[in-house]
User: What shape does this take?
Amino acid sequence: MSDATRTPAQEDAELHEQARIRREKLAALQEAGKDPFQIVKYDVTHHSSEIKENFEALNGQKVAVAGRMMSKRVMGKASFCHVQDLGGSIQCYVCRDSLGEEAYKEFKKLDRGDVIGVRGEVFLTKTGEISVHAEEVTLLAKSLEVLPEKFHGLTNTDMRYRQRYVDLIMNPEVRDTFVKRSQILRELRAYLDSKGFLEVDTPILTPFEIGASARPFLTHHNSLDMDMVLRIETELYLKRLIVGGLERVYEVGRIFRNEGMDTKHNPEFTSIELYQAFTDYHGMMDLVEEMMKTVARKVCGSLVIPYQGNQIDLSHWERLTMVEAVKKYSGVDFAAVSSDEEAIALAKEHHVELPEVPTRGAILAEFFDAFVEEKLIQPTFIYDYPVEISPLAKRKPDDPAFTERFEYFINATEFGNAFSELNDPIDQKQRFERQVAERKALDPESKAQVDYDYVTALEYGMPPTGGLGFGVDRLVMLLTDSASIRDVLLFPTMKPLD
Assistant: This one.
């Protein structure tokens, strides 16, 4: 019966039978005192990529490789198999005369997916493939489950995310994505370290919900008998360190937000927040641009990055105020808008949704969402945000209705958020209290509180400071041309199948 004519029930029955046979093979090995799970160590000398890259030096030399057997072709007294490891895969030539009759019989009983070790001599086959001539084959772990078919692979995206271990086995490009993710993090740290930043750790469990708009996950500390929340940002702790005299700090931190999920959002994600004393948001713009260029060159070898059908040019960054951007893309000039009432009328005229608190600044932000963001394909800084939506940013001295804040956008997606940090404790306290009051007016059940200890920290004096926060996952998506955040998270949040 061909694959095309098998029903799903028949395929399930066949897989069940194959799994049963594999368990019988394991039982037989254990009965014979050859339990592979009793092996505790195997001395690997080379990965497959090392052998291929250094063939001239290793030709004729003895090596030991180990990995998952992804294919096996038995041809009488001689066989071939491919062993897949972190570096790729390599062909192994296995023959009865080199291995011995009993060992060769054991090899023929191995299944695709078994983890094996192969010791032997490096050589080139008649067809020109670099291979290992096996002198010893060791079963290191028995695969009791059947791998997906070679040519169809693991293609169901839901199962790929649920069974990432199988996804990594079957799809080398997935493995490459996560190797590159690690490289991106390494290069980000290297860049910040080179600029004199100190990496620190701050609490994940915090004593109360701050007044920010993000919804937190709630938990309870049994020993202290107190409710706590998982952090929605690392900002306030890091700025306490600036007050304490650590002039440049950053944290690579896990953030938790009890909100919606889509291709750009996961309830837990990785961010980097950094703070630098004695600079402002223009200094942060310069840092972002240099950092992005540096990481792209190191990871991708180019400043022109293909992403989902677009060519993103990281060598050029446009800089627009929010008012300029709204005027450019909608034709509405908020510089000429003098009142909330006038802004409300413009919103109704242009069919823009009114925010919960319909002030001029908040409506400007709604215009930006409606007309601008989707147009920002190439790297763009949008700066000078309304004070209503920027509770932690310093007001502009020449126009206190706006703050020294920017976000940067690529491919119509926000990648990061930065401020000239507010360091006036009186202004900060007032903004916090107003923010919490608005939050509780909208949601009487909200447990949001003012972080008065942070206000106290500011009262000791925080120098002028530039701050930046950005999502690592979105950056990895960009540099690996991944369409969904789930493609760059090893274990994305999933609802249990049962």
Observations:
- Residues 61 and 121 are 5 Å apart (CA to CA).
- The first strand starts at residue 62 and ends at 75.
